[in-house]
Amino acid sequence: MRGTTFPENLSQNKGIPIRIVSPEFGHIAPELAAQYGSAQRLPYYFFLFVLDGNSREVIDGETIEVGKNELFFALPHQLRKLSTTRHNAYCYKLGFDDECLSRLPRKFPFLLNPLNRQKISFPPDAALRLWNTFKILNELLRTANTEPELILAYVNSVLTEINTAYFVLHKKHTAGSLDTFLGFKLFVEDNLTDQPAITEIAEKLAVSTDCLYRIVKQHSGVSPKEFITDRLIIEARRRIYHNQNTSVKELAFELGFNDPGYFSRLFKKVTGKTIAGFYQDLSL
Known about the structure:
The protein has about 280 residues and is an alpha+beta fold. It has helices at about 30-35, 100, 125-140, 150-165, 175-190, 200-205, 210-220, 225-240, 250-255, 260-270, 275-284; strands at about 20, 40, 45-60, 60-65, 70-75, 80, 90-95, 120. The protein is built from eleven helices and eight strands. Strands 1, 2, 3, 4, 5, 6, 7 and 8 form an eight-stranded antiparallel sheet that branches. Helix 5 packs across helix 7. It comes from Chitinophaga tropicalis.
């Protein structure tokens, strides 16, 4: 089991690290919210479900509109900009970390976000089931001494609904190809700054490079090399945000680039901005 990464002062249960926020419950005090700044690199999984109305989320610099019967989710290490206004919606927010996840009876592939989607739409019947499950969780977490097993049963139900909806439009993908893509994503995450060669990854996954190319392209829309490049630039943006005194040279070396000039050109090619321009945007 991994160590807990959920902020201790935010958990609503004594046995597991978890917090829920509804329109009438769970909001943190303004002075506590101020400690986290206008944005944070998430140390936990975050979910926002909207039954009716609308909300806006900014994750890794991308703005996502969340509307009726839609769920937004973010994963650990993503950079989430905190909302400064209350949501114009009937919504629930839920957060928990890997310690909580490790106590569930099954794994949920959508949490690796293999299809690179941060938002999921639900048909009305599934949306109502999900809302009612969130509602029960909300009631359970009003009491800090609620048995963790009871809470985990409903977290499992929530994640099962989400996992089903995440993949419902992608049933054409075979289980084998999805497993290979999940393996690819995990290998990239575990070895990102080593910048592994595509041939090395294919060998680890016991597939040919051509097969790996087809599978990654099928699930992500980009080639394996482009996927790794995009992921490196996302990581660069996160690190710039959290350490704005880092030089381009230091950042390049941290991410496995031997040539800072090449890294700078690649950053501009992918983002449309120079690194200096990105620093300037952050200071505004």
